[in-house]
């Protein structure tokens, strides 16, 4: 996680199967994203003005999607920062290990869908920014 930068993170345009009955997007592990998802979680009912995240992961890779509504993700590799506003259910942000992220500006009704490469492990989190900066040196 030491060497990763925000340039290793990217927006992925997912396949959208347009249909007058409703659109469909599919994500195939190791095809549309570089990992097989071992875990899926979603975040919803975020009160206006609230922020989430403020941590980094040592090993975990994630694809974050705005399944509904919108929010902003600010990525930080200890040197540079970049913000993305996600607002399309057919677009995902790939976040590699070793990136500090803060999520805010959640719209009303926003649903954040996350595909994660590993099962939940608290040991994989770095929740202290100073500690994160040390890891990146
Ligand atoms: P956390 O990842 O810290 O949320 P955020 O960074 O968005 O504020 O998770 C919040 C709580 O939920 C934390 O106590 C751990 C728990 N949790 C799980 O038990 N399993 C999971 O897969 C996730 C993502 C969180």
SSE layout:
Elements: E1 10-13, E2 15-17, E3 24-26, E4 39-43, E5 52-57, E6 62-68, E7 71-76, E8 81-86, E9 91-95, E10 100-104, E11 111-116, E12 125-126, H1 129-136
Antiparallel strand pairs: 1-9, 2-3, 4-11, 5-10, 5-12, 6-9, 6-11, 7-8, 7-10
Residues 39, 41, 52-53, 55, 120 line the site of thymidine-5'-diphosphate.
Q: Which fold does the CATH topology refer to?
A: Jelly Rolls
Total domains, how many?
Answer: 1
Strand order of the largest sheet: 1-9-6-11-4
CATH architecture tag: Sandwich
In N-to-C order, the SSE pattern is EEEEEEEEEEEEH
How big a fraction of the residues is strand?
35-45%
3D architecture notes:
The chain is mainly beta. The chain has a single domain, classed as Jelly Rolls (Sandwich). Helix content is 6%, strand content 42%. It has one helix and twelve strands. It has one helix spanning 129-136, and strands spanning 10-13, 15-17, 24-26, 39-43, 52-57, 62-68, 71-76, 81-86, 91-95, 100-104, 111-116, 125-126. The strands form three sheets. It has a five-stranded antiparallel sheet, with no helix packed on it. The chain has a five-stranded antiparallel sheet with strand order 8-7-10-5-12. The protein has a two-stranded antiparallel ribbon with strand order 2-3. The chain is globular. Thymidine-5'-diphosphate (TYD) is lined by residues 39, 41, 52-53, 55, 120. The site of thymidine-5'-diphosphate (TYD) has 6 residues, from β4 and β5.
